[in-house]
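hey
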């Protein structure tokens, strides 16, 4: 093992936690590095210290804490494999960051150079031969020569400030921003406001479905009632009205009677209810139409999400869910 010159004594006396926080601002990918001990047992650790070193020869590095149980194995290993995790492998990353359990139990693995275990479903895999090891304070720096590699289009997992994350392309956001600024200056409306964006997205998405409803003889109000009952049957008139007013429409008048007359709804009196109220249900005909609308909705959503791409679709769902759950707003009690 080569030993680097001793680093000079740092001027600043710093708090370890703060130093970790400072390092955490450097966004990285997440890897799992695996090896096989001479006795055949397998080792693996989650590591975000991975980095590229050289193209020719192809060298990569990562550092392993001297306190790691896996240290002796990696100090002896002639080969190890780097798995750059894909966006949906955060649980695997957590699994391999925990000590004191058989990390490979129940996992399907392949074998690589030196019998190294290879994990499936990663964005990239590299099989490496140990080239150098350096002492690096409380870590050992492992440098490996990449003997072979394979990579895919799967978006990688990201690690930032102690959290797993996904990365969405910045230049697309810039393009959108420039477009919004251009339209805002031409017609004076604020097309960058959330209300504008959410409203437009809503109309864009439901426009298609409304058109589908209209083809089947449903106006906007009837479309709403059908979907509300498909989400949960057995709602009272007051409840449907409350939902309806919440969604910004005027209260229902003769809509329910019309829909019942067309065989889409039926009313049943809930005998268990103290006030014996009428509750609305979809008839089999109504259920069939609701099902067709749901199928059309799923299909148009799948088309839209395919246009966005995997990571942006996840990002959109995540942000909308966070937005919906912001404190201080009335929740739609479905
Ligand atoms: C996202 C993440 C990144 C990590 N990166 C490293 C690293 O680069 N080097 C390291 O020694 N430990 C790192 N760890 C901690 C190790 O994964 C953990 O201590 C190790 O798996 C312990 O297992 P062992 O004692 O069985 O070797 C990281 C943990 C997480 C969750």
């Amino acid at each position: 093992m080569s030993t680097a010159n001793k680093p000079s004594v740092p001027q600043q006396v710093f708090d370890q936690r703060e130093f970790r926080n400072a390092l955490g601002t450097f966004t990285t990918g997440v890897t799992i590095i695996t090896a096989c001990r001479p006795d055949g047992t397998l080792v693996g650790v989650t590591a975000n210290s991975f980095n590229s070193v050289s193209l020719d020869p192809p060298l990569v590095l990562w550092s392993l804490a001297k306190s790691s149980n896996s240290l002796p194995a990696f100090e002896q290993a002639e080969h190890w494999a780097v798995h750059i995790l894909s966006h949906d492998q955060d649980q695997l990353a957590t699994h391999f960051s925990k000590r004191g359990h058989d990390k490979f139990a129940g996992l399907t693995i392949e074998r690589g150079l030196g019998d190294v275990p290879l994990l499936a479903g990663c964005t990239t895999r590299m099989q490496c031969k140990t080239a150098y090891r350096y002492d690096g304070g409380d870590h050992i720096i492992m440098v490996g020569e990449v003997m072979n590699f394979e990579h895919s289009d799967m978006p990688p997992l990201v690690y930032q400030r102690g959290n797993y994350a996904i990365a969405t392309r910045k230049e697309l956001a810039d393009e959108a921003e420039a477009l919004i600024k251009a339209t805002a200056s031409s017609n004076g409306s604020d097309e960058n406001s959330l209300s504008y964006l959410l409203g437009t997205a809503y109309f864009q998405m439901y426009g298609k479905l409304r058109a589908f409803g209209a083809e089947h003889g449903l106006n906007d109000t009837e479309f709403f009632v059908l979907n509300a009952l498909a989400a949960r049957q057995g709602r009272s008139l007051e409840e449907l009205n409350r939902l309806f007013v919440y969604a910004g429409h005027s209260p229902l008048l003769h809509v329910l009677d019309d829909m019942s007359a067309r065989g889409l709804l039926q009313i049943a009196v809930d005998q268990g209810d103290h006030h014996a109220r009428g509750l609305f249900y979809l008839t089999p005909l109504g259920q069939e139409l609701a099902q067709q609308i749901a199928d059309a909705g799923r299909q148009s959503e799948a088309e839209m999400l395919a246009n966005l791409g995997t990571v942006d679709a996840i990002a959109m769902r995540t942000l909308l869910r966070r937005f919906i759950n912001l404190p201080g707003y009335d929740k739609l009690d479905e």
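The radius of gyration is 29 Å. The chain has a mean pLDDT of 88.
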